[in-house]
Amino acid sequence: MERAKVLVIDDEPDFVEMIRMALEREFEVLVAYDGKEGVAKARAEHPDAIVLDIMMPEKDGFTACQELKANSTTASIPILILTGVGEYFGRTKYAKVSGMEIEAEDFMAKPVDPNELVHRVAALLKKD
Predict the structure, then answer these.
(1) To 10 degrees, what angle do helices 13-23 and 114-126 make?
(2) pLDDT tens digits for 84-109?
(3) Which of 24, 26, 42, 83 lies 20 to 30 Å from 113 when distance is taken between CA atoms?
């Protein structure tokens, strides 16, 4: 059986490695280290789901998510947004409501529990 392909887009290499190791138990994992690279990789590779950080150089996660949802080839890919500003949300431009307004399917604050992340990605894939 072919494993689902998950694209992880985050600018922190250590975090990406931890997430990759957790997700690889269940999925094929692709990686991009900023929003610009992530959007390009999503268009080229057509992953089954995307795990997307918010605060990144080049292009932040909200902008990347909006571009992915606006493009017919990537619009149906479920996106789980991650952010390290969860506890400061009310005082920043990165509010949870903004994530939902740009059509992200799920949302998790960092630090993430790797097992919970695997379960949340699996749940996103079952909604198809």
Answers:
(1) 60
(2) 765 444 444 445 445 445 678 888 88
(3) 42
Q: What is the C-alpha to C-alpha distance for residues 124 and 8, in angstroms, rounded to an integer?
A: 14
Q: How far apart are the first and last CA of the chain?
A: 17
Phi/psi of residue 78, nearest 5 degrees: -70, 140
Q: Are 16 and 38 in contact (CB under 8 A)?
A: no
- Which amino acid would we find at residue 18? M
CATH H-level, domain 5-126: superfamily = Response regulator (3.40.50.2300)
Cβ-proximal residues to 56 (8 Å cutoff; 6+ apart), any chain: 9, 10, 11, 33, 34, 35, 64
Domain ranges for the chain? 5-126
Q: DSSP alpha helices (H): ranges in the chain?
A: 13-23, 35-45, 61-70, 96-101, 114-126
